[in-house]
Design goal:
It is a single chain. With 262 residues, the chain is α/β, with parallel strands linked by helices. The protein has 2 domains: 6-118, Tetrapyrrole methylase, N-terminal domain (Cobalt-precorrin-4 Transmethylase, domain 1, 3-Layer(aba) Sandwich); 121-243, 2-Layer Sandwich (Methyltransferase, Cobalt-precorrin-4 Transmethylase, Domain 2), CATH 3.30.950.10. It is 26% helix and 24% strand. The strands form 3 sheets. Strands 3-2-4-1-5 form a 5-stranded parallel sheet, with helices on both faces. Helix 6 links the parallel strand 7 (136-140) and strand 8 (164-168). The longest helix has 13 residues, at 61-73.
Length: 262
């Protein structure tokens, strides 16, 4: 009887090996075939020795998903890697879309599992303190797959609702005006001095963090490797950190001592 096959959709985190989860490492260890965008495969290359590795480029997401499904249907154990969390702008969507279009339903072969990972927003937030302590929205500024009109409506709604906002894909070589347009929308709802953090290559050895405010965000030099965190009306800055209060009251008895100072 043919092996029913299995497909793991694996979020490998923001780039640092320290942020690859134990479940993701186990999925890669068990896989016979590993699919992924070349840059993401490079991040976990030492874990792929002796495996069949099938790289592909940006823009080939649906083909990548389909090929991984085909091999799983043939009875193989397959892993499809995705940066950050595979369920956040990652490969989980294409895989389940292709499966659904083919008539697959949960419980049928192949078995499919989503292995979550540390997202870019989480890694960026960790680099600058505690900016995501209240409700937040994650919005991609890439209009390659989503019309700008839809992105603009989401920015307007999130800004008006006073969410902390994480911006993915803020700029690229071809997309140069979207961040400026987003700032214009946000400034209709937020103070110009709203604190903002830009985390480039968050969690990697090349990590760079820039703090600015909303009035100067458009000129801060963001690119595709940058995640931007824009504070709410309550977010404040303490040195290199951004803090959004959770809402707890601090009892006066806890304010009597100073932090440990050398």
């Amino acid at each position: 009887m043919k092996n029913p096959g299995h497909l793991d959709i694996v979020g490998i985190g923001p780039g640092s090996p320290d942020h690859l989860t134990a479940a993701a490492a186990q999925a890669l260890r068990r896989a016979e075939f590993v699919f992924g965008y070349q840059a993401y495969l490079d991040q976990v290359a030492r874990r792929l020795r002796g495996k069949h590795v099938i790289p592909s480029q940006i823009g080939q997401e649906m083909e990548r998903a389909s090929q991984a499904i085909d091999l799983a249907c043939a009875g193989h154990r397959v892993a499809l890697v995705s940066g950050g969390d595979a369920g956040v702008y990652g490969m989980a969507g294409p895989v389940f879309e292709v499966l659904a279009a083919r008539g697959w339903r949960p419980g049928q072969p192949p078995s499919v599992r989503l292995v979550p990972g540390v997202s870019a927003a989480q890694a960026a937030a960790a680099a600058v303190g505690a900016p995501l302590m209240q409700d937040y929205a994650v919005i991609s500024l890439s209009d390659l797959l989503t019309p700008w009109e839809a992105i603009a409506r989401r920015l307007e709604a999130a800004a008006g609702a006073d969410f902390v906002i994480a911006l993915y894909n803020p700029a690229s070589g071809r997309r140069t005006w979207q961040l400026g347009a987003a700032c214009e929308i946000l400034l209709r709802h937020r103070r110009p001095d709203t604190p903002v953090a830009l985390a480039r290559d968050a969690s990697r050895p090349t990590e760079q963090v820039t703090l600015t405010d909303l009035a100067h965000l458009a000129e801060a030099g963001a690119d595709m490797r940058t995640t931007i965190l824009i504070g709410s009306s309550q977010t404040f800055r303490v040195g290199p950190l951004l803090i959004t209060p959770r809402g707890y009251e601090i009892p006066p008895r806890l304010l009597g001592s100073r932090p440990c100072l050398s």
